[in-house]
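Researcher: Sit down with what I've pasted below and flag anything odd:
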Amino acid sequence: MKNCIALVLLIATCITYAQKKPNGTIYAEHPAITTVENMTQAFVSGNADKVASYLADDFKYYSGTTTNKDDKGMDKAAYLKTVKTWKDNIDYPSIKRSKGAYPDALEYKDEDQKDLVWVQTWEDVKGVQKETGVKIDRPIHRLFTVNKDNKIKMMINYSTSTVNDEINESFTERTNGQIYNHHENINSVRKMVYAFENKDFDKAYKYYDDKATFIDINNPDINKQYTLAEQKENDKKMFEIYDLVSIDQVGYPDYLHYELDDARVVQSWWKIRLIRKSDKKSIVLPMMFIDTFDDKGKITNEIAYYSQKILEVK
């Protein structure tokens, strides 16, 4: 039996190794990597002539995310025009290796690849679009082929278009919904706040959805969201420390019904007058609420903006 097991393991090992087939060599340092990175920095600096010196005459640029099956790519002359476009439109430009990443140069054994070196990079593109002020901060992955003359023959760029979409949309004005100074959702926020002022907690909490979440900007964990049950406990502790004198509206609330995502948001501003029970200290606490509503008129999320230091003043 022991010999049988050993034979099975030997066969399995042979099969495993038989499935592996080397097809070239990967380099962490290579003249082709130097060429690619030097071209990249020339591009960032806006030096089209220097960029051109690194490109083969038959250079082609492709987007790795295009769905156009007939894409013929961008030739050398067209690509060099993008160098000027970048320089004229981007402040604080940079393209640098992503943290922890480094390029690879691949020399394949395939006969049709013998005169080419493939270089793959992982980088971060950063800058600010001059006219729109849109911040560019996105990762890109690029593939290059470098010919036997150490010239870049092809580049394929893989990156998200989200930032570019935002830039393009920011050149023209567009609306994103309507702002109301009177609305049923504003009424709900006022009724909720004044129910708290009058310690009618059952009524106050009825304006929230059962699955509502709450965010306190003073929480060290900025991602922490409280459930309705947890928020009730937080409110209870607050009233154990302070006597609530009054809550006064500042200005007027805004109700914003956004086109994007069909979001419904009430922004409201208040002065909350408290007396700290321990020392009878009178405190006026400015507070802003951002309440998000569902289509049934229930609050699904509330963010409270205020200064914790005001509550701690001696």
User: Anything to note?
Assistant: The radius of gyration is 31 Å. The chain has a mean pLDDT of 91. DSSP finds nine helices and 16 strands in the chain.
